[in-house]
From TrEMBL:
One of its GO terms (molecular function) is transmembrane transporter activity. Keywords: Membrane, Transmembrane, Transmembrane helix, Transport. Coiled coil: none annotated. It is found in: Membrane. It comes from Qipengyuania citrea LAMA 915. It comes from the Bacteria. This is MFS transporter. InterPro entries: MFS (IPR011701), MFS_dom (IPR020846), MFS_spinster-like (IPR044770), MFS_trans_sf (IPR036259).
Length: 529
């Protein structure tokens, strides 16, 4: 039986019933979190504007570029997000974010010294591990700084950093590369070329921001819901337990400790994912993508089975909840297409439409930042507005973010007119961004306060191992196997939309019932409240 530690969240109909003013400090702290997320996505997304230069200098193809941006980052981001999500539920979240920020900034800067694909891949893995600290900590902090009636809005504001950072990364990267290469045609100090200088320029400032983050005050967990949760006296114990449950080959020992039946199930799971990776390798001729994803999916399978044995209430309210799964997988299909379009937009325009990097920064990157900001903020506000009027209101916003970008993407990647491309890319970014705040808030509403960090980590498993891990790679692979046709590559990711439609239609019915029964289902699973 799992101790609740003071943790039951009121059901969502309570949203909108509170009128207490949010303290100014909450808004200040949220602005710092947004700045962190902006830098997070500058460091992550700058690969887009650098892709063609990396391809030329390192002699790689589009499928590798998709793997580098997506899978190499996503697998480690997802896997380490699980134990770090647990740590966010038990330790000082502000400290965790500061340490993670320092790590991913260092690894981004080290990317600037890469001379081959192996070193760049290793640095990208380090960025993924560091960035895995950010959102579990931030989502949990926001849920303790803002009342339930404003959480979708607050999470949407935080999430706007994704689009601001992703957009201005094109502007920053383009300006640095073109100016550096103009000043140093044969390579500058230490022999660095433009794309390497860009990594250094965006990585180093994060080390200074990490010091600012340490000045934030840690809120009392659950206090805003009237359910204060005492600090865990041994916060790293759970982190280490989760770490050894999710990182192969320790996963085998973790399963063995639960008995012969668990060990057999774990080994069968390993065999299944190894066979699946081998088949996909044979079919595509690409080894790194499927080895990384095979390890990632096996690790998640191992962790999930261990979670069921160690913390049945958390398992039941996440992996054991059809409503929770429909929300995160449904949003995963939104991310599948959105990540592909976001990453490949700049390389496509540079190759197919002949646009230079500086123009891409101003006319694709900067508008994309505005589009994403508008979409995520308006989507978050609409999600809260609709929730006050109907219990499935947030799900409708996720569904909107899945369907409405499709015509805009089709316009962007089939036109020969640069202006129409910019318009289509702007609309696609804005419309898909509308879903994020609603999806994040929906996932948080389906668990207890003590589970929020773990719920966030699980939510990001879908956005990373499905959206980021598969979408950009699929676009790059289809392009590489069809004569570098990035238009066909990006549009091929629209195949995910029908699957998302089915999942979200199911969520319309499942989510209201699940949100209204969080406490009852937790008690039925053994939670002491």
């Amino acid at each position: 039986m799992t101790e609740a530690k003071g943790a039951a969240v009121p059901q969502e109909p309570a949203v909108g019933s509170g009128t207490d003013k949010v303290p100014a400090y909450s808004w200040y702290a949220l602005s710092v979190l947004v700045l962190i997320y902006v830098l997070n996505f500058i460091d992550r997304q700058i690969l887009s504007i650098l892709a063609n230069d990396i391809k030329a200098d390192l002699g790689v193809e589009d499928d590798y570029l998709g793997f580098l941006y997506g899978t190499a980052f996503a697998v480690f981001y997802a896997l380490f997000g699980i134990p770090l999500g647990k740590l966010a539920d038990s330790w000082k979240r502000v400290r965790l974010m500061a340490l993670g920020l320092a790590l991913w900034s260092t690894m981004t800067a080290l990317s600037g010294f890469a001379k081959n694909a192996t070193v760049l891949t290793a640095a990208r893995i380090g960025v993924g591990v560091g960035e895995a600290t950010a959102s579990p900590s931030a989502y949990s902090l926001i849920s303790d700084w803002f009342p339930a009636r404003l959480r979708a809005t607050a999470l949407a504001i935080y999430s706007s950093g994704l689009y601001i950072g992703g957009g201005i990364s094109l502007l920053i990267g383009g300006l640095i590369v073109e100016n550096w290469n103009a000043a140093y045609p044969g390579g500058g100090p230490l022999g660095l070329v433009g794309w390497q200088a860009a990594f250094l320029a965006v990585g180093i400032p994060g080390l200074l921001l990490a010091l600012w983050v340490l000045t934030l005050r840690e809120p009392v967990r659950g206090a805003i819901d009237g359910l204060p949760t005492p600090e865990d006296p041994a916060p790293f114990r759970g982190f280490l337990q989760e770490l050894f449950q999710v990182i192969p080959p320790f996963t085998v020992f973790g399963a063995a400790a639960r008995g012969k039946k668990a060990l057999m199930g774990n080994l069968l799971g390993a065999a299944f994912f190894a066979a699946l990776a081998w088949v996909l390798w044979l079919l595509t001729g690409v080894v790194e993508q499927w080895v990384f994803l095979g390890v990632g999916y096996y690790a998640v399978f191992s962790w999930t089975m261990g979670l069921r044995a160690r913390d049945l209430p958390t398992f039941k309210l996440t992996w054991g909840s059809p409503a929770f799964l429909c929300v995160i997988l449904g949003y995963g299909t939104v991310a599948f297409t959105a990540y592909a379009a976001s990453y490949w937009g700049a390389p496509y325009a540079e190759r197919a439409l002949g646009v230079n990097k500086t123009d891409l920064g101003w006319f694709l990157g900067a508008p994309a930042a505005v589009a994403g900001f508008l979409g995520v903020i308006l989507g978050g506000r609409m999600a809260d507005f609709l929730l006050e009027r109907r219990p499935d209101g947030r799900v409708w916003v996720i569904l909107f973010g899945l369907i409405m970008p499709v015509p805009a993407m089709w316009l962007a990647y089939t036109t020969d007119d640069v202006v129409l491309f910019y318009i289509g890319a702007f609309l696609a970014q804005m419309l898909s961004a509308a879903a994020l705040g609603a999806a994040a808030a929906s996932s948080q509403a389906l668990v207890l306060p003590r589970m929020r960090g773990m719920a966030t980590a699980t939510f990001f498993l879908s956005t990373t191992l499905i959206g980021l891990g598969l979408g950009p790679f699929m676009a790059g692979y289809v392009s590489a196997t069809n004569g570098d046709d990035l238009s066909l590559g990006v549009l091929s990711t629209l195949v995910a939309a029908p699957f998302g439609l089915v999942l979200l239609i199911a969520a319309l019915k499942l989510v209201p019932e699940a949100a209204a029964s969080v406490v009852e289902r937790a008690r039925a699973a053994g939670e002491t409240i």
